[in-house]
UniProtKB/TrEMBL annotation:
Stored Pfam families: HTH_3, Peptidase_M78, ScfRs
Gene3D superfamilies to which the protein is assigned, alphabetical: lambda repressor-like DNA-binding domains (1.10.260.40)
Example of a GO cellular component annotation carried by this entry: cytosol
Single GO MF descriptor: DNA binding
Domain of life: Bacteria
Domain HTH cro/C1-type: 11-65
Keyword Transcription regulation: yes
Organism: Xanthobacter dioxanivorans
Protein name per its UniProtKB record: DUF2083 domain-containing protein
InterPro entries associated with the record: Cro/C1-type_HTH, HTH_RamB, IrrE_HExxH, Lambda_DNA-bd_dom_sf, ScfR_C, TransReg_Diox_bact_type
Keywords tagged on the record: DNA-binding, Transcription, Transcription regulation
UniProt similarity note: Belongs to the short-chain fatty acyl-CoA assimilation regulator (ScfR) family.
Amino acid sequence: MRQKVYAGHAVRRLREKLGLKQSELAQRLAVSPSYINQIESNQRPLTASVLIAISRTFAVDITSFGAEDLDRLVADLREVAADPFFRDLDLGLQDVKAVANLSPVFAHAFLRMHVALQRTAEWRASLDDMLAAGVAPGGDDAKLIPYEEVRDFFHYIDNYVDGLDRAAENAALALGVLDGADPAAAFAAHLSRRHGVQVEVDRPDPEAPLSRFDPRARRLVLSGVLTAPTRAFRIAATIAQLEHADLVQETVASGAFRSQTAAEICRLALHNYFAGALMLPYRRFLELARTLRHDLDRLVLETGASLEQVCHRLSTLQRPGAKGVPFYFAKVDRAGNITKRHSATRFQFARHGGACAAWNVHEAFEMAGRTLVQVGEMPDGARYICLARAVSTPSLRHGQPSRAFAFGLGCEVSFAHDIVYADGLDLKAAPVARLGVSCRICPRRDCDLRAFPPLDREIRIDGNVRGIVPFTIS
């Protein structure tokens, strides 16, 4: 059953942008003014006929009225509402839904303010520690905020940047990407021919930067430790830097970032986005992924890209009118830190703290090289096919630890027929892992893997009874 679309805020913003009154919009769409009023106040959902009328009358992409962003916003607001700072307000699900529905701009501002509040508290705690130890404060109070701001930017645009994606696709077709041409060689020849930039591969020095671009000398030097897919990726990112600076700047400006640091992080991320799209051009890769039913090993073999590049690209295939399977993608280290996260689904990642211990991405470290398949259910009842695989990079010198990561990739079970990993799974009888965003906001009362209590619930301690979890949740 399709989810009803309540997008009153989007209709209201469109009407205000066009300078129309509700009665004037109603006349243009051939509906009653009272109906427009009910839509804008989210008392009634948008019907298919009204969506089509809006699209035809105002040349608006109707996918912008989808419910995915609202789901994410509600999940983020619920996590923030669980903070003890707001406990006395008793903010419930209906409260946060009302805010997300009626004023998503305010909701985003509230989330931004909460991040700043948390970082201020962390800075004060570290300041107390430094003063107690007699160490001078270093002034690193806002280091993490720009990264989180950029993550949120990509999070709310479905990790898809249309202008850059199409530019990369056109360039890839001209260079013969996925037609048998060696990507790194093709990209290097393009840089030399069009920009006079020479690409050199240095010796494998573990102390040297992975890549160095000298604009004056027109030289791009790549470390010899890089794998072939990563070399191609770094060359492609340099192409973005040289050829699409205006488009990148326009996208950065649309993010309205609060600091120059955040803007530069976003600029770097956009160069990398273009690189991924150039190596795996949209329509060709989408067709290949569908043909192979998203077999990751086959996609790596057919494209010559790395597993991470393939997984990341799958999470970006959200072009209006030509969408792929909506995937989430996450990169997790051994400590449980999510170092990269993107989601074109309702699957939510914790904004703060560790990920759910029941998620198979943690188990993947014990079975490196194998793709683990899990059916997981989030607290909202949505079920996902969760894939996880661990990879490691060898150390570059004696005494240096190897780096290990686990990749998590998944989609809702409604797309099971598109995924080769669902073959043989009895989705009605298969064990279902009960997942959550993070322990501190998870509503489950009987999870044996819970690390600590939820912040929005009272707990009870019985000194005479000891279970696996040493408390019960009221």
